[in-house]
Design goal:
Helices cover 80% and strands 0% of the residues. By secondary structure, it is mainly α.
Length: 89
């Protein structure tokens, strides 16, 4: 009876060890895929952020205020305005 109990215990231990050994590789693959997914999400978030910034800049540049701002930076003056250099002191 004791011998049979010992054999059953060894078989169960061997089965558990085999199960753990067989499951190591899938967990490694899972961890790698999870890290890749996190990296892709981070890249997607950064790309969406850049896209939002570009859309805001485009909307600003296409508005009348934005066009005037760009024209003034390029040195254009509205009719009737004169160039005064008050920045230099």
């Amino acid at each position: 009876m004791r011998k049979r109990l010992l054999i059953n215990g060894l078989i169960i231990s061997w089965a558990i060890a085999a199960g753990v050994f067989v499951s190591i590789k899938p967990w490694q693959v899972y961890r790698k895929q999870n890290e890749d997914a996190i990296q892709r999400k981070r890249e997607m978030h950064d790309a969406e952020s850049r896209r939002d910034d570009l859309l805001r800049k485009e909307a600003r540049a296409q508005s009348s205020v934005g066009r005037e701002e760009l024209a003034r930076k390029a040195g254009y003056l509205a009719p009737g305005e004169s160039s005064t250099d008050t920045d230099k002191k």
